[in-house]
Amino acid sequence: MKKQTVDALVDGGKATAGPPLGPALGPLGLNLNQVIAAINEKTAAFDGMKVPIKLIVDPETKNFEIKVGTPPVSALVKKELGLEKGAQTPGVESVGDITMEQVKKVAHIKMDDMLSYTEENAMKEVMGTCVSLGVTVEGKDPREVQKEL
Q1: Which of 13, 102, 119, 145 is the most exposed place for a label (fewest CB within 10 A)?
Q2: Cα separation, 72 vs 50, whole angstroms
Q3: Domain residues of the chain, as ranges?
Q4: 30 with 11: CB under 8 angstroms?
Protein backbone atom coordinates (compact mmCIF):
# COMPACT_ATOMS: atom_id res chain seq x y z
CA MET A 1 0.00 0.00 0.00
CA LYS A 2 1.37 3.43 -0.86
CA LYS A 3 1.67 6.41 1.42
CA GLN A 4 -1.32 8.68 1.84
CA THR A 5 -1.23 12.46 2.03
CA VAL A 6 -3.51 14.74 4.00
CA ASP A 7 -3.41 18.48 3.24
CA ALA A 8 -4.94 20.87 5.75
CA LEU A 9 -4.93 24.49 6.87
CA VAL A 10 -4.51 24.68 10.65
CA ASP A 11 -4.19 27.41 13.27
CA GLY A 12 -0.49 27.74 14.15
CA GLY A 13 0.25 25.86 17.37
CA LYS A 14 -3.47 25.28 18.02
CA ALA A 15 -4.50 22.33 15.83
CA THR A 16 -7.26 20.16 17.33
CA ALA A 17 -8.72 16.71 16.69
CA GLY A 18 -11.81 18.39 15.24
CA PRO A 19 -12.20 19.25 11.55
CA PRO A 20 -10.25 19.49 9.28
CA LEU A 21 -7.80 17.01 10.86
CA GLY A 22 -9.92 14.57 12.86
CA PRO A 23 -12.17 13.33 10.04
CA ALA A 24 -9.20 13.10 7.65
CA LEU A 25 -6.95 11.19 10.06
CA GLY A 26 -9.54 8.92 11.71
CA PRO A 27 -9.70 6.33 8.91
CA LEU A 28 -5.89 6.07 8.82
CA GLY A 29 -5.80 4.55 12.30
CA LEU A 30 -3.18 6.92 13.74
CA ASN A 31 -2.86 8.06 17.35
CA LEU A 32 -4.64 11.40 16.90
CA ASN A 33 -3.21 13.02 20.05
CA GLN A 34 0.33 12.16 18.98
CA VAL A 35 -0.19 13.61 15.48
CA ILE A 36 -1.89 16.79 16.81
CA ALA A 37 0.92 17.32 19.36
CA ALA A 38 3.55 16.97 16.61
CA ILE A 39 1.69 19.42 14.34
CA ASN A 40 1.31 21.98 17.17
CA GLU A 41 5.00 21.69 18.01
CA LYS A 42 6.02 22.33 14.39
CA THR A 43 3.58 25.22 13.85
CA ALA A 44 4.06 26.99 17.21
CA ALA A 45 6.12 29.76 15.57
CA PHE A 46 3.08 30.77 13.50
CA ASP A 47 0.80 31.41 16.48
CA GLY A 48 -2.37 33.24 15.47
CA MET A 49 -2.00 32.47 11.75
CA LYS A 50 -3.43 29.81 9.44
CA VAL A 51 -0.65 27.48 8.32
CA PRO A 52 -0.80 24.96 5.46
CA ILE A 53 0.47 21.50 6.44
CA LYS A 54 1.01 18.29 4.55
CA LEU A 55 0.84 15.04 6.51
CA ILE A 56 2.38 12.04 4.78
CA VAL A 57 1.24 8.74 6.32
CA ASP A 58 2.38 5.17 5.76
CA PRO A 59 -0.81 3.20 6.60
CA GLU A 60 1.10 -0.05 7.19
CA THR A 61 3.72 1.15 9.69
CA LYS A 62 1.59 4.06 11.02
CA ASN A 63 4.64 6.31 10.60
CA PHE A 64 3.93 9.90 9.61
CA GLU A 65 5.86 12.93 8.44
CA ILE A 66 4.70 16.54 8.73
CA LYS A 67 5.67 19.22 6.24
CA VAL A 68 4.78 22.75 7.27
CA GLY A 69 4.20 25.41 4.64
CA THR A 70 4.42 29.13 5.28
CA PRO A 71 1.34 31.24 5.94
CA PRO A 72 0.06 33.46 3.11
CA VAL A 73 1.80 36.83 2.60
CA SER A 74 -1.35 38.62 3.77
CA ALA A 75 -1.20 36.79 7.13
CA LEU A 76 2.48 37.65 7.55
CA VAL A 77 1.89 41.34 6.73
CA LYS A 78 -1.05 41.48 9.18
CA LYS A 79 1.08 39.84 11.89
CA GLU A 80 3.94 42.32 11.29
CA LEU A 81 1.50 45.19 11.83
CA GLY A 82 -0.63 43.54 14.51
CA LEU A 83 -3.78 43.80 12.40
CA GLU A 84 -6.87 41.62 12.70
CA LYS A 85 -7.93 42.14 9.09
CA GLY A 86 -7.28 44.27 6.02
CA ALA A 87 -9.18 47.37 4.88
CA GLN A 88 -12.86 47.17 3.92
CA THR A 89 -12.13 49.35 0.90
CA PRO A 90 -8.43 49.10 -0.04
CA GLY A 91 -7.22 52.18 -1.89
CA VAL A 92 -9.68 54.41 -0.04
CA GLU A 93 -9.06 53.28 3.53
CA SER A 94 -5.64 52.55 5.03
CA VAL A 95 -5.35 50.16 7.96
CA GLY A 96 -1.63 50.39 8.59
CA ASP A 97 1.81 51.43 7.41
CA ILE A 98 4.64 48.96 6.87
CA THR A 99 8.36 49.79 6.71
CA MET A 100 10.71 48.60 3.96
CA GLU A 101 12.49 46.48 6.61
CA GLN A 102 9.23 44.68 7.41
CA VAL A 103 8.52 44.19 3.68
CA LYS A 104 12.00 42.69 3.30
CA LYS A 105 11.43 40.41 6.32
CA VAL A 106 8.15 39.05 4.91
CA ALA A 107 9.76 38.62 1.46
CA HIS A 108 12.56 36.54 3.03
CA ILE A 109 10.11 34.29 4.90
CA LYS A 110 8.09 33.62 1.72
CA MET A 111 10.97 33.61 -0.81
CA ASP A 112 10.98 29.81 -1.28
CA ASP A 113 7.25 29.76 -2.07
CA MET A 114 7.26 32.74 -4.42
CA LEU A 115 7.76 32.91 -8.16
CA SER A 116 10.32 35.68 -7.72
CA TYR A 117 14.02 34.96 -8.18
CA THR A 118 15.34 38.17 -6.66
CA GLU A 119 14.82 39.86 -3.30
CA GLU A 120 13.64 43.01 -5.10
CA ASN A 121 10.90 41.14 -7.00
CA ALA A 122 9.83 39.28 -3.85
CA MET A 123 9.49 42.65 -2.09
CA LYS A 124 7.36 43.91 -4.99
CA GLU A 125 5.14 40.84 -4.61
CA VAL A 126 4.70 41.62 -0.88
CA MET A 127 3.85 45.24 -1.74
CA GLY A 128 1.22 43.97 -4.20
CA THR A 129 -0.42 42.19 -1.28
CA CYS A 130 -0.20 45.43 0.74
CA VAL A 131 -2.26 47.15 -2.00
CA SER A 132 -5.12 44.65 -1.59
CA LEU A 133 -4.92 44.80 2.22
CA GLY A 134 -5.06 48.61 2.30
CA VAL A 135 -1.59 48.95 3.86
CA THR A 136 0.74 51.81 2.94
CA VAL A 137 4.51 51.38 2.63
CA GLU A 138 6.36 54.05 4.60
CA GLY A 139 3.41 56.42 4.19
CA LYS A 140 3.08 55.99 0.41
CA ASP A 141 0.88 53.95 -1.91
CA PRO A 142 2.61 50.56 -2.35
CA ARG A 143 2.35 50.94 -6.16
CA GLU A 144 4.46 54.12 -6.02
CA VAL A 145 7.13 52.36 -3.95
CA GLN A 146 7.15 49.42 -6.40
CA LYS A 147 8.02 51.84 -9.23
CA GLU A 148 10.81 53.39 -7.13
CA LEU A 149 12.49 50.01 -6.53
Answers
A1: 119
A2: 8
A3: 4-68, 73-148
A4: no
